[in-house]
Amino acid sequence: MKDVQNLKDDRNMAIDRVGVKGIKYPITVLDRANKIQHTTADINMFVDLPHQYKGTHMSRFIEMLHVFRNKVSLKSISMILEEMKKQLEAKSAHIEIRFPYFIEKKAPVTGASGLMDYKCGIIATSNGINETDILVEIRVPVTSVCPCSKEISRHGAHNQRGEVSVSVRFKEFFWMEDLISLVEQSASCEVYSILKRSDEKAVTEKAYENPKFVEDIVRDVALKLEENGNFPWYAVSVENFESIHNHSAYAYICSDKNQFA
């Protein structure tokens, strides 16, 4: 049968990225507590296309997913990228894998167990000289109590749920759980999936005694990443979904001051 993708194109225009987006696919990721975890990912996969080719072979992206679906991890991502380049005869390859990651958390007083889901992602690129750049991203829900509200109010203080987004480059393998914990320790209090009355009392009081602006949280996360030593590059943003304002509060820090959010 005629292979239209391999026909010559005379427009002399290379394409930086061509591929497939929005694939929902079951994958297996590493889990510190249970060794592996089954989850469902949203995946984007791209390669470059030289100017002389009309198109790429889209079906090969899906075929490779089937081969690697049980091997998706920080340790295997370079191998996946190299196989993409090989199978699609490309110089560069790019993959984005975003998935819910579940951690069992116990309520602070009663010990009631529940599953918390965190939005995680692996974004990786391999260039024409086999250099691989890998970013890991997480989104962590947190609680914050407004220091200003606490200071000026006779009774209570307003609090809200927020979301901390972190992207990092790293030197050595690390567990998602550790990065998530680093973020949660920087907020007024953690968020839980299940709380009894005694737990609600404990987390409310903990947050009240630990008020933080978005500026406090983003700085504390950035400082912890600096002190960790494993993250040569990071970007941190915090958004509080305000409880008494019709807007969100936002703060952002990037280790590369030439890069904007």
Short description:
By secondary structure, this protein is α+β, with helices and mostly antiparallel strands. It has six helices and nine strands, in the order E-E-H-H-E-E-E-H-E-H-E-H-H-E-E.
Structure characterization notes:
The termini are far apart. A hairpin with a 3-residue loop joins strand 1 and strand 2. The chain is elongated. The chain contains 6 helices and 9 strands. It is of the alpha+beta class and 261 residues long.
Give the averaged pLDDT, no decimals.
92
Q: CATH superfamily name of the largest domain? A: Urate Oxidase
What is the beta-strand fraction? 35-45%
| Total tally of structural domains | 2
First CA to last CA: what distance? 48 Å
Query: What about the largest sheet?
Result: 9 strands, antiparallel
What's the total helix number?
Answer: 6
Helix content estimate: 10-25%
- Low-confidence parts: none
* Tally of strands: 9
| CA radius of gyration | 22 Å
> What overall form do the CA principal axes indicate?
elongated
What are the secondary-structure elements, in order, as H or E? EEHHEEEHEHEHHEE
Helix/strand class: alpha+beta
CATH third-level topology of the largest domain: Urate Oxidase
| CATH class identity of the largest domain | Alpha Beta
Oligomer: single chain
Q: Per CATH, which architecture of the largest domain?
A: Roll
